Amino acid sequence: MARIELPEVLVMEILSKLPVKSLARFNCNAIPSVYGACHGLLCLQELSTDKAALWNPSTREFKILPPSSIQRPPYLSPMEGNLALYGVSFDHAALGFDSKTNDYKVIRFVSFIYYHRPFVTRTFVNIEEEQRYAYPHYEFQVELYSSRSDSWKEIPCPLYTPTDLILGNNYVDGICYWKTMTEAYLGLILLFDLANQKFSILPFPEIAGSCLHYYDNLLMFNGSLSDIVCLLEGTGMSFDLWVTRE
What we know:
Layout: H1 8-15, H2 20-26, E1 33-38, E2 41-45, E3 52-56, E4 61-64, E5 83-98, E6 103-116, H3 127-132, E7 136-146, E8 151-155, E9 171-172, E10 175-180, E11 188-193, E12 198-203, E13 214-221, E14 224-231, E15 239-243
Antiparallel strand pairs: 1-2, 2-3, 3-4, 5-6, 6-7, 7-8, 9-10, 10-11, 11-12, 13-14, 14-15
């Protein structure tokens, strides 16, 4: 699954500056992903669990966030009874500031991964039959943390969910951004307004012309949402940087 994370070397450099007591309280079994920064704050998130924390490197304040409020979905899908819950992940987080309520907020997507149970009743299932049921089924939910209430709450999940990495921060001026895509569009930008707590989408710019083979990703450049594009065709290597004006 796509993940939002900083390079491991940079994460280790950041975590090495934390006091031992804070690291022991966080008690990670793996290196957490780092999200932010917003007003000097960073959000640490362990992807395989709901463990998360806010950290201020300048003051060394370290706050453990409360457990997730999301429970296992009461529904599965029309194929209920043939799906088995395989795992849960907490990913695509964003840290931002709601100036309307003077509140720091964290939003994250919770993914429930299901696998199809074999329809056969035999104890032994051969490899070909296993492969028939190896495709995962996903259910997504979204939760929002408020520092003022120090609690999570579930919010309506958008039709489109993040599908790709973000280069660094994905928050600017009260809005969180992610890349997403649909069957009708190769790429869309998913937005979340922290003040209104509403999702919306924007189309990507016409960046590649007739070239169908390119790599692009969102990033923040000089305080603005930007898209960096690398064409994968042709003899030369070049990058285009698109910067929003509003």
